[in-house]
Amino acid sequence: MTIARHEPFADIAREREADRLGMIVFLASEAMLFGAIVMALLALRTFEPTAFAATSERLILLAGAANTAILLTSSLLVAVGVGARKLDRNRLAMALFAGAALLGIAFLIVKGSEYRAEYLEGLMPGVGPRQDFASPGARMFMDAYFIATGLHAVHVIVGVVLLAGCAWRLRGDAPPSVVGTGNVGLYWHLVDIVWVFLFPILYLSR
Amino acid sequence: MELGRLLSVWVALLVLLALTIGASFLPIGDWRQAINLAIAAAKAALILWVFMAFRTETPLVRLVMLCAAVLLFVLAILLAADYFLRPEGFL
């Protein structure tokens, strides 16, 4: 691993900390964004407990659980890949990042098939062949579900593009920097953490 | 060894996933929600500490993430105060 010092930093450790700090501040702002949505879900569950539980039960638990395992595994691949890049094992890092990107695509396919099932079942507010909401609370749950998982899916798409871009550049002799791959890894882990909170609240509130 | 640590955390995360799904089927009423949120917090802590390498991070960087967590907690308390302290029939 070769890291050169750049002005105006007095030493490499300080420069590395500054690089990391910028990314963490961005991730903190992402945590605020998703934190607000999680709080809205918890408020809805507090005031509409029956509708919340009944509608939560209609989601496909197996798909949600599989997607959690998929994201946790892709996070492992990214964590090992970031370590491999630090050791200049770029081919290995490339394979691991590509694997994580493929798992991200698998997540999106599972999520898409869920959306399709909910569309056909009449659980997509405002669109679809029919509407099948037992109460206004049920519809609010599905509104919140699509906002939360939709925004998360957008983040997964961005993450997949970043991971694939890293993997592509790792194949050649101009690989992305250690700091760059590390920051892409951090972003992917945050996307994973967001899902870790969304999964039990949306799927397990029976 | 670093790889061993990452793999054991991954196994721990999958075990916690199985536990949270199992707990959601227990007949213990609202405790399930508390257990599921506690398990989610434990999983997030594991990812943050090991996968995101906060274990070896400098105090300054840790402090920034801690600020975000504290601020979210403050916002949650304000939200709860707003909803729970409203007079009856206000909503």
Keywords, separated by commas or semicolons:
A: mainly alpha; Four Helix Bundle (Hemerythrin (Met), subunit A); 79% helix; B: 91 residues; mainly alpha; 3 helices; 76% helix; flat
Overall average residue pLDDT of chain A? 93
Give the terminus-to-terminus CA distance of chain A: 50 Å
Largest sheet of chain B: none
Shape assignment of chain A: elongated
Strand content of chain A: under 5%
Largest sheet of chain A: none
Question: What is the helix content of chain B?
Answer: over 70%
Distance between the termini of chain B: 56 Å
- Share in helix of chain A: over 70%
Count of distinct structural domains of chain A: 1
Average pLDDT for all residues of chain B: 91
Protein chains sharing the most extensive interface = A-B, 43 and 41 residues
Radius of gyration of chain A using CA atoms only:
20 Å
What structural category do the secondary elements of chain A indicate? mainly alpha
What is the string of SSEs of chain B from the N terminus onward?
HHH
**Helical stretch tally of chain A:** 6
- Which regions of chain B contain 5 or more consecutive residues with pLDDT less than 50? none
Short structural summary:
The complex is a heterodimer of chains A (206) and B (91). By secondary structure, chain A is mainly alpha-helical.
Question: In words, what does this structure look like?
Answer:
The complex is a heterodimer of chains A (206) and B (91). Chain A is mainly alpha-helical and 206 residues long. Helices cover 79% and strands 0% of the residues of chain A. Chain A contains 6 helices and no strands. The model of chain A has no long low-confidence stretch (mean pLDDT 93). The chains are: A mainly alpha (206), B mainly alpha (91). The interface between A and B is large, with 43 and 41 residues.
